[in-house]
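Please go through this protein, sequence plus structure tokens, and consider how the sequence yields the tokens. Keep your notes short.
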Amino acid sequence: MPLPVEWRISDHPVDYLDAVAEMEARVAAIRAGTAPELVWLLEHPPLYSAGTSADPRDLVDPERFPVFESGRGGQYTYHGPGQRVAYVLLDLKRRGPDVRAYVHALEEWIIRTLDRFVVKGERRCGRVGIWVDRGNGREDKIAAIGVRVRHWVTFHGIALNLDPNLSHFEGIVPCGIREHGVTSLWDLGLTPTMEDLDCALMSTFPEVFP
């Protein structure tokens, strides 16, 4: 009988390299059967991370914040205060060795979480992440997804914008998409707390990842 998923919430911003090192160690422990699966909710200090498909031309202002090569899929993204990062470390060998289905499930998790705040998050063909239709042809990204899988154990995960400084995204072309903007729950006129967001994430997770 597998152990239940462990939830960890960090109250203070976590250094990016420290987080990656912790994930690497936990992936090995999950694979060895010595630790349960983990969802780690945290914030980072302001930084840019480059996925394996990142185009250097999309790093508009390389001096603005530290830039890290992440090893996850995807392109450039921003992390910083006011953004809830959820690192998801699951054993897909047990849950189903299908990366495409896993990413679809992460999208569904975000969509259901946003629905708790009466926000309609949507997928877009050819665009990774979750989007909000702002009307008049405008669409903004509210959540990013970037995953890595090693020996069928997942790590990295999602980043959902609660109330980050949206101007910080201007130092990159987020996920290589120039035609659309970025939004957050607060930018949409809602004012939940990070605790409210965490509660929504935790309550919707078992609906998608039983």
